[in-house]
Amino acid sequence: MNNNVVVRLDSSKVSRAVGNYSHVTKIEPNATFYTFSGQIGADLDGNLPEEFNQQVDNTFLNISNLLKSIGLTPDNVIKVNIWSTEEIDWDYFDKVYNGFFGKPSPSMTVAYVTALGLEEIKLEIEIWAAK
């Protein structure tokens, strides 16, 4: 991580992380804070593929494009919230996630839900960032 505003930390005062996330993310003073609407697995034409892992790929492409559009990178991300309507293939997801964020990963929350905004949406990821 090459960022002078965001610092990702782990704590020895809680159980070790059970996934790819940091327990604590520190934002330095005078940083600009960004929140983003949740991104889904639609392609650039707005089509939602049926296959879950294709939605994973598209979601991270959408997040990447969103960050680039305002001059940010994955290093600026401080928090990731993930909602899924079906079981996540963690081997595949972690490969994409680690390739996108690297180490250390941002703080993260994962929730399985019964539905998202549209029936076809299987995954939604919301990020927060600072610069």
Automatic annotation (TrEMBL):
Task: Cite the Pfam families for this sequence.
Answer: Ribonuc_L-PSP
Which parts pass through the membrane? Answer: none
What InterPro entries would the database entry show?
A: RutC-like_sf, YjgF/YER057c/UK114
The protein's superkingdom reads Bacteria
By what name is this protein known?
Enamine deaminase RidA, house cleaning of reactive enamine intermediates, YjgF/YER057c/UK114 family
